[in-house]
Structure formats: C-alpha cells, structure tokens
Amino acid sequence: MKGLFADHIDLSAQVMQLRQKRQNVVAGNLANIGNPNYKARRFEFEEQLQQALQTGQGGRLTKTDPEHLPTGLDQARVKGDLSQETEFRVIQGEDAVDLDKEMAVQAENSLLYNVLAKVLQKSFSGLSETITKGGR
Amino acid sequence: MDFMTAMDIAASGMSSQRTHMNTISMNLANVNTTKTADGGPYQRKEVVFQSVPVSDRFESMMRSELDREVKGVKVVRIQKDDRPLKQVHDPGHPDADQQGYVSYPDINVVEEMANMLTATRAYEANLSSMTTVRSMVAKALQIAR
After folding, report:
1. What is the tens place of the pLDDT at every residue in B46-99?
2. Which of A8, A25, A36, B34 is an S-S bond match for B95, by CB 3.0 to 4.6 Å?
3. Cβ separation B125–A16 shorter than 8 A
4. A-contacting residues in B 68-127 (Cβ below 8 Å)
5. b/e per residue, B37-49, with b = 16+ CB within 10 A?
C-alpha cells in the first residue's frame, strides 16, 4: 500500500467501468433483438484481467530475494475485447439474439457490479472510520 | 461510454418495439378494410428494423472502436406485405367484383397475436436492461455515502 488508498480501489473502479461497458453491449443486443441482420456482440475482459493479476496460466513471479523488484499490478492493460457471435441462429426466421443468454449475462454483470460498488463503499467507510476513531 | 449510452440504447429499443406494436394493432384493426386512400383493400404492413449508432456521426468519430460497435435500433420503414388478397364470395358487398367476390386483406389474427407477444417480450427485455442500469447507477452513487 503506497498511500492512503489501497490498490484494490483503483482496480475495483476499473472493473466497474468494464462491467458498465458490458451492460451497454447487452443493452445494444437487447435493442436489436428483432433485427434479422444483427449479430449479438460480446464484451470479454476476464482473461486480460487474470493476466494482469498474474494469476492466470503464467502464474505469479516468485521473489527469491528481498531485493527483487515487486511485480506490480498492470491493470492499464485490461481494456476488454468486443467480439461478434458468428454462428447463425434461425428462430422464426429472424432471431439473432438469444434473450435468455443476454438476460443471464445482464443479471450476472449487474450483480457483480453491485458487489464491487459495495466493496468500494465499505473500503471508504472503513477508511473514514479509521480516520475519525483512530485518534481516540 | 457511460450509463446514458445504455439508457439511450434501451430507449431506442423500446420505441422501436412500440412502433412494431402500433403496426400490429393497425393490421388487426384493418382485418376487414376494403377501401383505402390508395384505392383497393388494405395491405398488411411489416416493420423493418435497422441497427444504428447511438451517437451522431461526428460524435462517433471521436469515440473508440468499441463505442462505435455498440448500436441501438430504429424502425427504418413500414413496408407493405405483398401476400395475395383473400377472395370472399359476398355479392351484396359494395366492393364486390362482377363475379361477386370481395378482396379482403389476408391478415391472420393468430399470426398477429404471436407477433404481438414477440414485441411485448422484446419491449420487456429492453425495459429490464434499463431497470438494471438504473439500479447500477443507484449502487454507484451509494459508494460516496
């Protein structure tokens, strides 16, 4: 922890932003639900996030000497990828967006967003508690 | 890209579905219409949706690729369905031809009902995305509490 605010605050804020983008993508899919030529879009960032957190396949670099540089969190790399689903779906001739899938993505996304908002809220209220009550 | 984008997209979807619903109502209301302003019986109408960028062209140039890819929807036109007319034998009808047949629009009430349900579900889907965004904004505002 470099300053007053813990590292996870920035990270949580960024993930919230990414989740907000995902919500926008879902909204776009839902709006175009009856549009024959529309392909559902997906917004993925989890893998990049894993890599940035170095808990993905590469694994965390081990420090064998106290003078080794710490491997910091490279969260600026996490930008997210937008992809279009390529498979054709034909339901009554025109349906290209899977309503159930979109709803599931939306529910999960908003739930995790709310969790992150709660985490941030708690960390700030904890901080202010420390400030106000620490001196007593 | 902000919360307003999601709101705008959901709103565009809801308004398009409303137009769809109006068109279906129009079809149902005109099941037996034999006279129109263009002459001849009423012809079934169908809406055509198109995905459109959320922001105007100049604004979208300033945005990232991701923001440009996320699209809303609008109704580009309401087009006539060219299916053949239904011939009903009714010599007493003022619009009957020499053989006593009247041309009615071939509107299938069950088909229109099914379309109506689809439009309702699509409308609800957009509504749910708007509700979700709203609750997300409310949660984000609570961070500072």
Report:
1. 999 998 887 666 666 666 666 677 888 999 999 998 889 989 999 998 888 899
2. B34
3. no
4. 69-73, 118-119, 121-122, 125-126
5. eeeebbbbbebeb
